[in-house]
Structures are given as structure tokens and as C-alpha cells.
Amino acid sequence: xxxxxxEWEEKAEQAQISLFENYWNNETSMFxxxxxxNNCNGQFHYWWLAHALDTLIDAYERTNNVVYLDRSKxxxxxxxxxNNGVITNHFYDDMLWMSLALLRLYEHTNDSKYExxxxxxxxxxxxxxxxxxxxxxxxxxxxxxxxxxPSNAPAVILASRLYQKYGNPDDLDWAMxxxxxxxxxxxxxxxxxxxxxxxxTGNGNIDKNWEFTYNQGVYIGAGVELYRxxxxxxxxxxxxxxxxxxxQRLVANKTTNILKDEGGGDGGLFKGIFVRYLGxxxxxxPNQKDIAQFLINNAKSAWGNKLAExxxxxxxxxxxxxNLNLDLSINLSGVMLMExxxxxxxxxxxxxxxxxxxxxxxxxxxxxxxxxxxxxxLLNTVKQAEHHLEKDRVEQAIKHLQNFQKHLHNNAHQNYLxxxxxxxxxITTDLLLEELSK
Length: 438
Prior knowledge:
6-hairpin_glycosidase_sf; mainly alpha; 7 strands; three-stranded antiparallel beta sheet; 16 helices
């Protein structure tokens, strides 16, 4: 494994700064639609801005710098204003992306208006379900007989996260119902490769020739979140199969192993979605070190082909220096890639120790990401594990670390820790258990 480094943390921060400097519009408190924006803001890209929110929250989770939260809050208010004072939208997939971002924003602010917005969106999204073609959520409100992966796999992610947070069994029922439809209708049963949609042109056909990174990413995310919600390994196995097939089929060529160019516009976001949920898979299953290295290799290529040393902007191809007039979507994907590389860097780093776990735990307590009665429980459990390791009683230490994880995932404790704290501490504990079991 690599030695401990923060190379990609620094690069992620530089990319975030460049995104803000080159796209943020102080007059609108939103990101411009393109770099070197010249009358480029005529169209309101609701779903691009949802991903912009997600990307700002990535930066906050990495740095704990409230500047990123402040920008997220300002961006949300501007989105609301531009959207005529409502948070809902004509497209079900777009509302899903906004829901996922706002759920994260609520997690870090505890501001009930974001929570209320999530439930408003979720209630609207569920109206898109019908039994035509066996089920599924429609793509948009004027074409209810067209069902696609972008409107279904992210719904599984959202429903699973809502269940994990609130424990409402209806949300888990929705997650499983949508996942089962998605898997039986729009996933190749032999390879796990995910197709785009059914009945787009009204002929009942499946778009098997539309091969997008987007679709693989959201299905991987759906499998990971359902695994977290149910602890049923079949969902994780599905995610692993799709990740392996997706990487194999969607790289530009087998020599470089860098993801293909999917253009600008909406396509500019596709790779960002894929790398986000590939990263989520590795966080859940740190044994997927090949995927972690794949993400870092893509980040190296994109970084090496940035626009300039003093202007860190990425193109739709991560293997060529970009031209100008770059859509926001393209650079959101580039920044997402840098943020995932920063996470992967930590996962691949050596060493993992009880001291690192202690350091992370105390850091999350200091920022109130862990609070209330859970604080002494976790501190004592780690202290017990540390004590046994000092005495070379490895088996006893392992039992305490396993108990530590049970506390992290106990539904009764979910109001006392953030998703980021739970996920990162789970990753570190997994790696530590793996080391101790050798």
C-alpha cells in the first residue's frame, strides 16, 4: 500500500477553489452555466445545480470549512428563487438529485427547511410510479409511460438513506420495490450492465445501445445503499458486478483505462456520477482496492490534462487538454473526481491503526458529528480495544471493534451521528479489522 499522503486532498481543494473562482456568479449566488460565461445563463439547469450542492458538501466534509456550507445555503436559496419559489420540478430524476443533495445539507446543518424540502420532493417523486411495464418511476410528468434508470436507481438511493435515517419501513419497501423493478427490467442479468430506459419512443423497446457511465453509477449506488439498509450481501454483490463490467466497457481504451469522453451538456455530469458511486462502493467495501486505484489513475490523467497550472479546469475528456467555453457540468465531474481521489488516497494509505481510529473519533466528537449518549459509548469501546491491543490480546480487541461498528449502525443511535462520521469510522474500522485478522 501507499504511504500516508494528502496529495489529493490538496488537489481537491485547488479544484474547488478554481470551480468557485471561474463559475460562481456573485450577482445570482449561483454557478454560471459555462466558463467564460457570455449570455450563457438563459437556461436554468436545476439538476446541474443539485450536483453543485453535492460537490460543495463534498468539500465541507473533507475540510469542515463552514465557507462551503455557507455557499451551499446561498445556492439553495437562489435555486428556490429561480424555480419560482418551489423546490419541485417537471423531471423526476432531477428532483431525486436535489433530494439527495438536500438530505446531505440537512445532515450538516440540522435546518428543518432542508428536511421539509426532501420530504416534499420524495412525496412528489413517488407519484411517478405506475404499473405500466411492470412498475418503475417515469422520467417526467408529461411522459408517464417512459421509465428509465435515471429516475429509478437514484430513488433507491434516496429511499434507502431515508430508511437508514428515520427507520420508516415504507421507505425500505419503496427502495426494494423500485430496485427489484430496475434489476429485472433494465439490467443485463448476465453481466450486470445497466440499460438506460424502456419505451422512450413509445414502442416498448429497451434502450440497450445507450451505454452511459451515469446508469452504472446510480445502480452501484442503489446496491450499496440497500446493502447498508438491509445488510443483505446480494445487493453489494450486484454493485461489485456492475462496477467491474462498467469499468471494462466504458473506458476510452484498454491501454489507458481512463473513462471515455461523454461530451458536454448533461453528458458532462455522467462521469462525475459514476466516480461518486464507485467511491461509495469502495468506502463500503475497502477490499475493492483496484477500483480505488482506478479512480486515482483517472484523477492523475485529468489533473495532468487540466487547462493550466493557474486555472484548474477539466475537459469532457480526461485525456486531453480542454478547449474553452466549458460547461459547468463538465467541471463538476472533474471536481467530483478529485474529491473521490482524496477519499481513495486515505483508503489506500498505510498505516491503519487504533490511534487513527481514536483520532478520527475525537475529531468527529469535536465537530458535533457525534454527540449525546453515543459519545461515551464509542469512546469506551475504542479504549477497551486499545487496552487489549497493548496487552497483545488481539481476539478481544477485535470483539470490541466489532461492537464499535454495531453501535455505529444501531438505528437507536442514528440521531447522534452524521452520515459522514458513520461512513468514515466504518471504513477505518473495516481496514483495522482486516489488518488484525491477518
